[in-house]
Structure formats: C-alpha cells, structure tokens
Design goal:
The protein is mainly α and 215 residues long. It is built from eleven helices and no strands.
Length: 215
C-alpha cells in the first residue's frame, strides 16, 4: 500500500473514532434511513441520483480516499458510493447542485491537466488530482471551490464507511469491523467490558435488524 493510501486510511479511521462516528445513527440525519424494503431494493447499486459517469467518478474518488488493503476493506467494499447516491436523493438533496457542479469542474480540470477524466486516470494521477483539490491548487473551480468539494466528499466517505448500514453504506459492517465497533449485542460479558482490544465477536446488529426484530 502506497504512502497516499496509508495516510488517507489512517486519517479517516482516526477521525471517525475520535469524532465518535462509529456511534452509528447519530452520524447522519434520521431522514437518510431506509426502510428494510427500500434498502434491500437499493442494494449496492447507484442510480438514485448519480448517472453512470458521475457514479464512476465518485466511486474512484472515494476509493482513493479510503483504499482497501490486505484484510482491510475500502470504500468500494463498504458501499460508500451507494450511501452518497441515496443521501443525495434524500436528506442531502440540497447538495445535488453542489455535486453536479463539483463533478463537472473536476472533469474539466482533469481533462485540461491530464487529458483524461478522473475515473480513467491511474492511481498516481488520481492522487495527484486529489492532492491539488485538498490544497486548493486545482484551477477552474468557482463554486464549489476545490477545497470545499474535497472536504464534502471526504466527509461523506467517512459517513458511508462508518454510519449504521441502514443508511446504505458500511456494507456487512465493514467499517465497524475495521475499527472494532461492536454495534448492538445481546449481552456484553464482564470480560468484554474490561477489555481494551477491538471487539470482533459476531453478531453485529444495526438499526435495520433491530427494527425487524421489534416488528
């Protein structure tokens, strides 16, 4: 795993833990929650908001922000694209123009500087572009600015990795397993409560599973 990969993974995981992001439902608005039927129908596909080209760009972008590694899930594994897509079609609908304009400006910048759209660049080229966005050095951005676009996508990547799976991301509890967050458990033993090790015992239970049990 390269330097960019390790640095970004470390930042997102550390930020999620320090901010209490693994607390699940409190990370994002309740309006993002899908019913069991909606969530199962949505699966891990895009199409609620993004078109194919937009989805390809966001999928590549978030994977460079949170790349996978041996034995460690990345944004693709956790369904971050699906999370952002559903969010923009629902509770984050006010950010639709923000994303449309940001993606258009990103595409124009990549075509001007590297002669290819973002999704077609190799990992090194994508890292170069992301660094330029993060540092506010990417040209051609008006609204959102390059830094605003980067910051927003990074925040939504964190949410898609670590929010309760009911919101469309954190597929198979990939993010929770990564940081050792247990979700809901039927019982915690005295040893569990005293342990300083990451919690790994199954099952992990999210909001959707709890709702099914109560119905």
């Amino acid at each position: 795993m390269g330097k960019h990969d390790a640095t970004r993974r470390t930042f997102l995981v550390s930020a999620a833990v320090s901010a209490g992001a693994v607390a699940g439902a409190g990370l994002v608005p309740e309006a993002l929650a899908q019913s069991p039927e909606q969530h199962e129908a949505a699966g891990v596909q895009h199409g609620a908001f993004f078109n194919q080209a937009q989805a390809a760009t966001i999928a590549a972008f978030v994977e460079r922000l949170m790349p996978d590694a041996p034995g460690k899930p990345g944004a693709r594994d956790a369904g971050v694209l699906n999370y952002i897509d559903l969010a923009l079609a629902g509770a984050y609908a006010e950010l639709q123009d923000f994303y449309r304009r940001g993606l258009a400006q990103l595409d124009a910048y990549c075509r001007t500087t590297l002669k290819e759209p973002f999704a077609r660049l190799d990992a090194a080229g994508q890292d170069q572009v992301i660094t330029s966005l993060e540092q506010g050095k990417a040209t051609g951005f008006t609204w959102p600015t390059a830094q605003e676009f980067f910051d927003t996508v990074r925040t939504h990547t964190m949410e898609g990795m670590f929010a309760d799976p009911v919101y469309g991301g954190n597929k198979d509890f990939a993010g929770w397993r990564l940081v050792g967050f247990p979700g809901a458990q039927a019982v915690f033993t005295p040893a569990d409560l005293q342990s300083r090790q990451a919690f790994t015992r199954a099952p992990m239970i999210g909001l959707q599973a709890q709702a099914k049990r109560q119905s």
